[in-house]
Amino acid sequence: MVTPPKNMNDTVLFSAKLCGIKEIYCIGGVMAVGALAYGTKTLKKVDMIAGPGNAYVNEAKRQVFGRVGIDSLAGPTEVAIIADKDVPADYVVADIMAQAEHDPLAKTYLLCESAEKISEIKKLLPKEALKQLKTELCSLNKAVGIVNNIAPEHLELLVKNYQVLLKSVKNAGAIFVGYQTPTASGDYWAGPSHVLPTNGSAKFSSGLSVMTFLKRSAHIEMSKNNKKAYKTIADFAQAESMQYHKKSAEVRYLIPSFFANRKGRTADI
Q1: Per the residue annotation, which of 78, 154, 156, 194 is the catalytic one?
Q2: Residues 87, 127 within the same domain
Q3: Residue 235 and residue 225: Cα distance in Å, rounded?
Q4: Are 96 and 78 in contact (CB under 8 A)?
Q5: pLDDT tens for residues 183-241?
Q6: Is residue 108 domain-shared with residue 207, that is, in the same domain?
Q7: In the listed set 41, 70, 99, which residue is the last one of a domain according to the structure?
Q8: What is the required cofactor set for this protein (predicted)?
Q9: Are residues 235 and 174 in the same domain?
Q10: Domain boundaries, position 236
Q11: Which of 153, 156, 194, 250 is labelled catalytic?
């Protein structure tokens, strides 16, 4: 684990202990990304770098991708809130402010079926938060369509009958349903990582999880007498004009002695 050297956080250190982390390096930012990607005299090169950072960290991760794996290229945090006419305004205000306090570049979206509710919420928000907020007066069903296009990092369904809307949500990093579920519940209590896809990448990616650190390898074994399979391989290879792909199958079931008398010379097929 790497963490900035100034003001080491006791909570972070204790969390690392609970997770069984054995090595902690006091380095942060771009320097940490470089050290992890290339290694130093005291820090071994790693295979995967995970965790959010500022714009400079994001660019550093982008540049080392391929040399090492990365979890994602996370942009400024964002939340989209679909609200009905009955939601308590102070719930929405608190959730918008919670997102805005992360970053001056944080993105907040409010999609509501009631013009009166939007006006009430805006009156309660400070000017700085209003600058970050985009609002849309629309039906709840239309709001879901807009959200699927935005693919926000966080989505709150602050509506009574959220079950109906939830079925239509396709793109969101994490979804918080019902009046009583703030985004902060995902950050600090519910369990899933709050390192989530941003900038629309929830259309094709998911949040950080154990799966981020796992990979798959295919294991293939063929029997000697599987002539039907070898014939299929040869047919596909023939269709792609890959002569030695075809021969690698045929030599196993048609003419196993094909290369035997070639005297070190590549065969012409």
Answers
A1: 154
A2: yes
A3: 17
A4: no
A5: 999 989 998 888 999 999 999 999 999 999 999 999 999 887 788 898 899 999 999 99
A6: yes
A7: 70
A8: Zn(2+)
A9: no
A10: 218-268
A11: 153
Check residue 266 and report its DSSP letter. Answer: P
- Non-local (6+) Cβ contacts of 105 within 8 A are 76
Q: How many domains does the chain have?
A: 3
3-state secondary structure 64-84: HECCEEECCCCCCCEEEEEEC
Q: In degrees, to the nearest 5, what angle opens at C-alpha 52 toward C-alphas 125 and 107?
A: 25
Count CA atoms closer than 13 A to 212's CA, side-chain side: 21
Domain termination residue (choose one: 173, 194, 213): 213
pLDDT in tens, 41-74: 999 999 999 988 888 999 999 999 999 999 998 8
Q: Which of 97, 111, 71 is nearest to 208 (CA)?
A: 71
Tell me, what's the pLDDT at 269?
47
Question: What is the token pair recorded at 1?
Answer: 């684990």
- Judge whether 154 counts as a catalytic residue: yes
